[in-house]
Amino acid sequence: MKNILPAHIAFGQQLAENQKVTIKHNLSNSCGQSLSAAQLCLLGETSLEALLGDQVLSYASISGSHRLRSLIAAFHQDYNHHQAQLTADNVLTFCGAQEALSAIYQTVLLEDEITNSTSVEQQSAIEIVVITPCYPSLVTMAEQMGITVKCLTVDFQQSWQINQQELLALVNENTRLIVLNSPHNPSGSIIETKFAEQILAIAKQFNCYLLADDVSQASNYNNVDLSHRYLDYDRAIVVSVLSKSFGLAGLRIGWAMSKSKSFLKKLLAVKAQGSICTSIVDEKLAEIALENHQKIITKNNTIIKKNIILFQLFIEKNKAYFSWHPPQAGLLTLVKCHTEIPILNWAEKLAEQTGIFVYPACLFGLPGAYFRLGLGGENFPVILQSLQRFVDKQV
């Protein structure tokens, strides 16, 4: 396995090392509007000193505090309609969502019957199904294990809609894992409840694992039907985090949920080889965030909705330069840039001239002149003004 940076991180590092670039704004930010620690504590009607002043800075619980895990379970119960009653015992915390995803891939794709095989052909016969473009590790982690990745790619011409029949047709007796992300990063398309039921049925039919990356599920400002009941299935895992819909990326708290407590024990064994536990300070602040999730999510969804309206006006003014499909939900979508310049060079030029950072979509597996648009920040109008000045100079 080569020790190289993921393409999107390498691109960011390249710009950071470019002496012509001073990044002022991130137009591809995948997170909602953040809060200061003091602002978060104020929501909980306490102060940072009262919350942490007497807190002994010892190790946190390996699984996560019982209080935090109970709040996470209740949070997911609010957004979905599982028949099973979710409790703290169905939750395991991680240092962010990526650690959780890595542990799940290792547990699901490197099970004993795989690792004991000496046949490369047998290893590559195992398949996972992923919707692309996507966060790169959802594909690369499997490829590095020698697993066959079957991709369903969403398309601008189809308004980034997921072709339901094509997705279901990718699942077969070799499928070990179906990976879902709704709202989809980075297109903003969704898997509605009725389609979620079909996916759940086919996962049961082929007895494969089902991973739902639900990090932006709460960013549902259009009130579409995103609820599901995946966690009624023993082989389903749901992942989420405080960085996306909550906007609290500085709290390195992510989690995995499963009906299967034996599966969570396997994930815990993988976690014990990495972070072992999260920060006890982060846990205390995370508890306040989850206790007040409705206030945080409501405010952030209002910001996203305003920014969508602003960007639609921007698009109408600059039709010769950009086109887009507004997201159905979530904080992200993709913008098509009408330029003859290769998109990587265009993004570098944008950063040099304006200090605006964007991720070209080719870094997430989508060829063409597209970039990822983040809609969650209060500073979005200011960034648009700077982008408009850049566009005016190009015309």
Describe the structure.
The chain is of the alpha/beta class and 395 residues long. It contains 15 helices and 13 strands. A seven-stranded mixed sheet has the order 2-8-7-6-5-3-4, with helices on both faces. Helix 8 (137-144) links the parallel strand 3 and strand 4. It is globular. The model has no long low-confidence stretch (mean pLDDT 94).
What layout of secondary structure does this protein have?
Blueprint: H1 7-17, E1 25-26, H2 37-43, H3 48-52, H4 66-79, E2 91-94, H5 97-109, H6 112-115, H7 120-125, E3 127-132, H8 137-144, E4 148-153, H9 164-169, E5 175-181, H10 193-205, E6 209-213, E7 236-241, E8 254-258, H11 261-271, H12 280-291, H13 293-317, E9 322-324, E10 332-337, H14 343-354, E11 356-357, E12 359-360, E13 370-374, H15 380-394
Parallel strand pairs: 1-11, 3-4, 3-5, 5-6, 6-7
Antiparallel strand pairs: 2-8, 7-8, 9-10, 10-13, 12-13
Oligomeric state of the chains in view: single chain
Biggest β-sheet description: 7 strands, mixed
Total DSSP E strands? 13
Number of helices: 15
Q: Categorize the overall geometry.
A: globular
What is Rg? 21 Å
